[in-house]
Amino acid sequence: MSTNNELKQEKARETLGMPDNLSTEEDIDYIAGFLKAAEMIENSVKTVRIERKGQLLFTFKVHALSEQDMSDARKMATTFMRNPRGKKLPPIEKEFNSALANSCIIYLATVDEDKKRLWDNQKLKEKLDVIGTGYELIDKVLLPGEKSAVIDVIDDLCGYSGDDELDSDEADNDIDIAKN
Questions:
Q1: What is the CATH architecture assignment of 45-179?
Q2: In this predicted model, what pLDDT tens digit does every residue of 1-54 receive, in sequence order?
């Protein structure tokens, strides 16, 4: 009959292809914690509710972003110019558009299903005279304060809130953004 520790070791070996030399409970717990941390990132989603004057207008879900996604959003919102010190040097930042960066972050953090339903919806773009990207539709629909509040939610999901844990099982998983 296998002990509890032996069963944990076998599960860890099967899951990760770990070597047979996992010998201590601490090794197993460490790996389990590592896997749980990755799972918590994948499962960290919150529903954002846009309300004005007591009326629910629409909802959408956002998830945590990677540092690369955040960097990409910043690059999309930055214009560059030729380096005045010479052509062989890399371009330098000319202007950063924080409003566009926020729209890009919201767009990238929106779950794919809601992104298609809202930000990439061609009929909505036509109705609101948006020719370009989903980022522009976000600017057309969300007030600056609403965008800021959504960014705060995304930052919390990304771990910038100062909380030590990401918990997608919170009792209040819906976030009310605006109650104008």
A1: 2-Layer Sandwich (3.30)
A2: 556 666 665 665 566 555 555 556 666 677 777 777 777 777 789 999 999 999
Helix axes 4-16, 25-42, angle to 10 degrees: 50
Please tell me whether residue 7 adopts helix, strand or coil conformation.
Answer: helix
Q: Enter the pTM of the model.
A: 0.73
Average pLDDT, the chain: 83
**20-24: which pairs have CB atoms within 8 A and are 24 or more residues apart?**
none
Contacts of 92 (CB under 8 A, 6+ apart): 80, 81, 83, 84
Computed from CA positions of residues 145, 98, 120, 112, in that sequence, does the dihedral angle turn out positive or negative? negative
Can you give the residue ranges of every domain in the chain?
A: 1-42, 45-179
pLDDT band (50, 70, 90) for residue 132: confident
Is 60 in contact with 110 (CB distance < 8 Å)? yes
- Rounded CA-CA distance 122/114 in Å is 13
* Structural contact between residues 109 and 152, judged by C-beta atoms closer than 8 angstroms: no
